[in-house]
Write a structure and sequence with these properties.
The chain has 161 residues and is of the alpha/beta class. It has a single domain, classed as 3-Layer(aba) Sandwich (Rossmann fold), CATH 3.40.50.450. It contains five helices and six strands; from the N terminus they run αβαββαβαββα. It has a three-stranded parallel sheet. A three-stranded parallel sheet has the order 4-5-6, with helices on both faces. Strand 1 (29-32), helix 2 and strand 2 (52-57) form a beta-alpha-beta unit. The chain is globular, with a radius of gyration of 15 Å.
Length: 161
């Protein structure tokens, strides 16, 4: 889950919390940047529904993440931790827009991680690629879970004869 920190709108926060709730109910682990805004909202949604919320923090300090994280991992990587957030994910849901969110979308697209975008900055490749739009939090979660299942199936070893 990616999106803006403290500049997130109320609508983005509500959508992120719903995404966290739905992912937790589906048994998925939420991974985010671990700070405020949509990261705190998705973590809150996940934790309040029995889920796991992992925060990959930019700094070195333990205890610097939002209060809803289950696991807090200080990376000491600053904004470079954005690459970690998207590469550990099987699918990415982007809510809202910011420069950090844009960098995460770009990194996910470059590494082949599917991105599902709910609101935010329009991002399109000149040849027509880009994040797949989602109209609602529920649709974003449905699409992301399907993409994650497909990614797992593609990586599964073939059964031996």
């Amino acid at each position: 889950m990616i999106g803006p920190g403290n500049d997130a709108t109320e609508a983005e926060l509500a959508a992120a919390e719903e995404v966290g709730r739905l992912l937790a109910r589906a048994g998925a682990t939420v991974v985010c940047g671990g700070l405020g805004g949509v990261m705190a909202a998705v973590s809150k949604g996940a934790r309040s529904n029995g889920g796991v919320a992992v925060g990959l923090l930019p700094g070195h300090e333990h205890g610097a993440g939002n209060a809803y994280l289950t696991v807090e991992l200080p990376t000491g990587q600053g904004e470079m931790r954005n690459a970690l957030v998207v590469t550990v994910a099987e699918a990415v849901i982007a809510i809202g827009g910011s420069w950090g969110t844009l960098s995460e979308i770009a990194l996910a697209m470059r590494t082949g991680t599917p991105v599902f975008q709910l609101a935010g900055w329009p991002v399109r490749d000149p040849v027509g690629g880009g994040p797949q739009p989602a109209a609602t939090a529920a649709q974003a979660v449905t699409l992301a879970l399907a993409a994650a299942r497909a990614a797992r199936a593609a990586r599964a070893p073939s059964p031996r004869p």
